[in-house]
Design goal:
mainly alpha, ABC transporter involved in vitamin B12 uptake, BtuC, two-stranded antiparallel ribbon
Length: 318
C-alpha cells in the first residue's frame, strides 16, 4: 500500500507551501484561483443554457486558431494568440449553430462533430508544420501550472506584481467579473428566455456570441496552466457545485469563486503530497468538493433526498 500512496509528510505537504516555499506555491495557488474562478463565472451561464458541452467544444476548437495565428505571425505574442483563439471559438460557435439550425442534427451532435473536427485539424496542422509551430502539444492538452513561478515578472511602477501569465489571467478574471456585473440582466434574461429578451430590447443572438467570445478568451488564457482538457472541468465543477447549494444566480457566482479558492489551495497540497500534476490535483479537489456537496447539501443532497423519501407520512393514521 505504501508503494501506491506516498507517505504524508506534514511539514512538506502542509507547512512548507505557506512558509519557505511560499514564493513558489503562492503564485501557483493564485493562478489556480484565477483560472478556476474565471472559468466558473462563465461556466455558470453555460449550465443555465444547458450548453455544458459548449465549453468542451470551444476548448478543443481553439487549437487550429492558435496554430494558424502562429503560422501567419511567427509570434507567440499574447494579442496574436488571443485573436486566433477568439476567431476559432466564434467560428466553432457559428458552425455549430448552422449545423443545428440548417439540418436535422441535434445540438449536442453538432457540437461533437464541430469540436472533434476542428481539434483534429489543429493536430494535423501541428504535425505538418512541426518544424515551424513552436507549440508544445502536451502543454496544449494538459498545461503545466507549476511553470508559472519560472516566468518573467511583470513590473508596474518599478514594482514586480507577478508572472506574466498570472497577471494576464488576473486581468481576464477581473474582466469577466465586470462583464457579469454590468451585463447581469442581459445575460440572465437571454439565458432563460430568448423571446422575453427580445421584448426587453435585448438581442439574444448577440448575447450568445458575446458569451462564446468571452469563453474563448478565458479558455486560451488558461491553456498554459491547465490545457484544453482540464479547463473543461473548471468550467463546469464550480457552477455545478454551487447550484446544489443555491438557486439564486448571484449566490451561485459567489459560491463558484469560493469553490475556486478551495480548489486552488486543496489541489496544491494534494499535488505536492502525491507528486503529480498540480492542475490535475486541483480538478480532483474540485470534484471532491462537488461530491461532498452532492451528498450533504441541505436541500439537494443525497442524504436530504433520502430523508424526504423515508419520512413517515403523518397523514397515514388520520
Amino acid at each position: 500500500m505504501t508503494d501506491l500512496i506516498p507517505s504524508f509528510d506534514w511539514q512538506r505537504v502542509v507547512i512548507a507551501p505557506w512558509t519557505t516555499e511560499l514564493p513558489i506555491f503562492g503564485w501557483i495557488m493564485l493562478m489556480g484561483f484565477f483560472v478556476t474562478a474565471a472559468c466558473g463565472l462563465v461556466g455558470n451561464y453555460l449550465l443555465l443554457r444547458r450548453m455544458a458541452l459548449m465549453g468542451d467544444a470551444v476548448s478543443h476548437s481553439v487549437l487550429p486558431g492558435l496554430v494558424i495565428a502562429f503560422l501567419l505571425s511567427q509570434s507567440r505574442g499574447t494579442g496574436v494568440m488571443f485573436l486566433g483563439a477568439l476567431v476559432a471559438g466564434v467560428f466553432a460557435t457559428v458552425v455549430i449553430e448552422l449545423i443545428h439550425t440548417k439540418s436535422r442534427v441535434k445540438q449536442d451532435a453538432a457540437m461533437g462533430i464541430t469540436f472533434s473536427t476542428l481539434f483534429a485539424i489543429g493536430v494535423v496542422l501541428t504535425a505538418v508544420y512541426a518544424d515551424k509551430v513552436d507549440l508544445d502539444a502536451e502543454c496544449v492538452l494538459y498545461g503545466e501550472i507549476a511553470f508559472v513561478p519560472l516566468e518573467p515578472m511583470v513590473a508596474l511602477g518599478g514594482l514586480s506584481i507577478g508572472p506574466e501569465s498570472l497577471v494576464r489571467m488576473a486581468a481576464v478574471f477581473c474582466g469577466v467579473g465586470l462583464l457579469v456585473v454590468f451585463f447581469y440582466k442581459e445575460l440572465l434574461v437571454s439565458s432563460f428566455d430568448a423571446g422575453l429578451a427580445r421584448s426587453l430590447g435585448i438581442n439574444p443572438t448577440f448575447a450568445h456570441y458575446a458569451l462564446m467570445s468571452v469563453l474563448s478568451v478565458v479558455v486560451v488564457s488558461a491553456f498554459e496552466s491547465v490545457g484544453a482538457i482540464l479547463v473543461i472541468a473548471m468550467l463546469i465543477l464550480p457552477g455545478a457545485t454551487a447550484s446544489l447549494l443555491s438557486k439564486r444566480l448571484p449566490v451561485v457566482h459567489g459560491l463558484s469563486v469560493i469553490h475556486a479558492a478551495l480548489c486552488a489551495v486543496l489541489g496544491t497540497h494534494l499535488g505536492i503530497w502525491l507528486e503529480c500534476s498540480l492542475g490535475a490535483a486541483m480538478v480532483v479537489a474540485g470534484a471532491g468538493l462537488f461530491a461532498l456537496v452532492w451528498i450533504f447539501s441541505p436541500e439537494e443532497g443525497l442524504l436530504a433526498l433520502w430523508r424526504r423519501h423515508h419520512r413517515p407520512d403523518i397523514t397515514a393514521g388520520i
